[in-house]
Specification:
287 residues; alpha/beta; 8-stranded parallel β-barrel; two-stranded antiparallel ribbon; 10 helices
């Protein structure tokens, strides 16, 4: 079982001038401890469901570029990129840039986007849910084409590219892996079966059901279900309830989950040090 660190808040410590050194130290500790991945959110306002919208928030890919310079081993990605925030051709180039500068450690995490307050606030077009999923599928197709030998045009319903040239190519071979986040059974998990190397789900009671749905989509699409890596965002606080956290991780491992992501619930340096020392060695025993 691999462990990922999902760095979702820039509020602790509260002084803005400490954001940079705290992020850098946390990333280095995680990298040295053996965390498999480091992810950030793709938000410009903090999520209102968890904290005030005006809490500090940094742009995702700029942040990961900084983290790339602080680390050597961890996979770097956004959990997950909102499809409406960047034109697909530019997104493919951004992820390629991260991959090249990190030495082949980028992962494209992507989803349909949902946070309308920040979209309206910052002038991002708000479109119906159905159209967002159409755009998500075209974005996946464009990224795959830009990471292939095909530099020709792309003609879709929502996006038209005259040429899909991207030089240099990613260092990761054959390309950066694609992770699709979300548990929507009709559309999201279908797109996972069609395009993704991994999925990201919440560690809730219906996880087994979501994986069964994904398996059904794989059968219908002719895709090998086992070729898709299953990852989960953990809801159990690892340091407050370590036994419950480890028990849940073991249950997920039995379902085929190979990576769990944890989110700091205290000072991120303290959190990462303690999780790395107390829990990460135990997770590596799960198969």
């Amino acid at each position: 079982m691999k462990l990922g660190l999902h760095y979702w808040s820039f509020t602790t410590p509260p002084e803005p001038e400490l954001i940079t050194p705290t992020l850098a130290r946390t990333a280095r500790i995680a990298d040295d401890a053996g965390f498999a991945s480091f992810t950030v959110m793709d938000h410009y306002f903090q999520m209102e469901a968890v904290a005030p919208a005006d809490e500090p928030m940094l742009e995702a890919y700029t942040t990961l570029g900084f983290v790339a310079g602080q680390t050597e081993r961890m996979t770097l990605g956004v959990l997950v990129t909102g499809v409406m925030y960047r034109y697909p051709g530019l997104l493919a180039k951004i992820v390629t840039t991260l991959d090249v500068l990190s030495g082949g450690r980028a992962r494209l995490g992507i989803g349909a986007s949902w946070y309308e307050r920040e979209q309206r606030g910052l002038g991002v077009p708000v479109v119906p849910v159905g159209e967002r999923f159409e755009r998500l599928e075209e974005t996946l197709q464009i990224c795959l084409q830009m990471w292939s030998e095909n530099n020709g045009p792309f003609e879709g319903r929502h996006y038209r590219l005259a040429e899909t040239l991207s030089v240099p190519a990613p260092i990761r071979r054959p390309r950066p892996p694609i992770m699709i986040g979300g548990g929507g059974e009709k559309k999201t998990l279908l797109l996972v079966a069609r395009y993704a190397d991994s999925c990201n789900l919440f560690g809730t009671d219906d996880l087994r059901h979501k994986l069964d749905v994904l398996r059904s989509h794989c059968e219908a699409e002719g895709r090998d279900y086992d070729s898709i890596e299953k990852t989960v965002v953990m809801r159990v606080p690892p340091l407050d309830e370590p036994d419950a956290f480890l028990a849940a991780a073991q249950e997920y491992a039995a379902l085929g989950v190979t990576e769990v992501q944890v989110t700091p619930d205290r000072h991120p340096v303290e959190f990462t040090e303690q999780v790395g020392e107390r829990l990460l060695p135990k997770l590596t025993d799960f198969a």
